[in-house]
Design goal:
The complex is a heterodimer of chains A (55) and B (302).
Chain A: H1 24-27
Chain B: E1 4-7, E2 12-17, E3 20-26, E4 34-37, E5 44-45, E6 52-59, E7 68-72, E8 77-82, E9 85-92, E10 97-104, E11 110-116, H1 117-122, E12 133-134, H2 139-149, E13 153-163, E14 166-171, H3 178-187, E15 192-194, E16 197-203, E17 206-210, E18 225-236, E19 241-242, H4 250-254, H5 264-280, E20 283-288, H6 294-299
Parallel strand pairs in B: 3-6, 4-12, 6-11, 14-18, 18-20
Antiparallel strand pairs in B: 1-4, 2-3, 2-5, 7-8, 8-9, 9-10, 10-11, 13-14, 13-15, 13-16, 16-17, 17-18, 19-20
Amino acid sequence: MSKETSEERRPYVKPEIRRVNLKPEESLVAGCKTLNTSHPAASPCDVNSCMNLGS
Amino acid sequence: MLPDFSIGGGETRTFAIGDTRFAFRCELESTRPLRLPRSFEPFIVSEEPSDIEIRVSSVPRLGETQGSLVYDSKLHWRALRVGESTIFEFFHPPTALLYCQTRIDENFSQAEVLLSETAWSRLAPQDSEPRDWEIPYPLDQLLLVPALALRGAVLLHACGAVVSNRGLVFAGHSGDGKTTLAGLLASEGTPLLSDERIAIRKTERGFVAFGTPWPGEGNVVSNASSPLSGMFVLRKATHHALGGTSPSLAADLLARAIVPYYLPDVATRILGIFSELASEVPFRELHFARSSGITSLLREAA
């Protein structure tokens, strides 16, 4: 059995709750990147309906 | 935007992304080829067999799938489950016309992409021939992200660079400065992996960062990879500064990853990869400004 020394032990970090900003349309690639949209129509779609322009 | 390149009927092209091989097989019986973004071209490999095969063909018309809806983007695509398979359907937003239907197996190793000949003809501009066949955005990522995850890789909204022969990844939402940082690093002669999407995979040599074929506004595309020695959450600031290492930034980084939460098995795998990342790779914040000197600061972290 290995003996954990104080040097090996990570410093204790108190648990905390933080609010993390999640952008669902980016996590799920749900948006429409109009510059890259492949589509059978010449003009991809109603641009106003697209949520995710740019990076 | 980079021009496209084509795959003819009966042809197969295999791409290596995140050390995983994806074969696109064009089975379209048409004089019109299948167009793929030019950014995929550097990722073409000749090795067979592939890990994932994606067969693309056309049918006269498509009917909506009768399955259980697992996710609706409320824009132009949705995902359904039928048995063990996942189905992705794509609609033309103004007309609600179904123009692409894709079925992929539970292992994300065999996909069948069907394109509607009727939809392609009806949606062509007036007095013109139908456009070349294309893989609709973002179908390639919808297929590849789970396929990568089930093979131990994750895809992040991130810029990546090689500093002192080590890979550094800078994750950010849209507007957090990935393109700006990529421009700063490039102006200092620092090699880039991507300005928009980075794949990270655990290998026998530890975690490795890979360039991908999905560039951002800077059109940075590289098929290079580098051993990963640091991950950063981007913060805009008035001067450059490195934050201290903190595994608790894993949540911030996870929020910048592409995670198909509607596929619980895949999401669980991605969480597992992040758990390993947090224990093996230092996480930091990078505060950066529109000024020179960023590469020399990052050498401290590489």
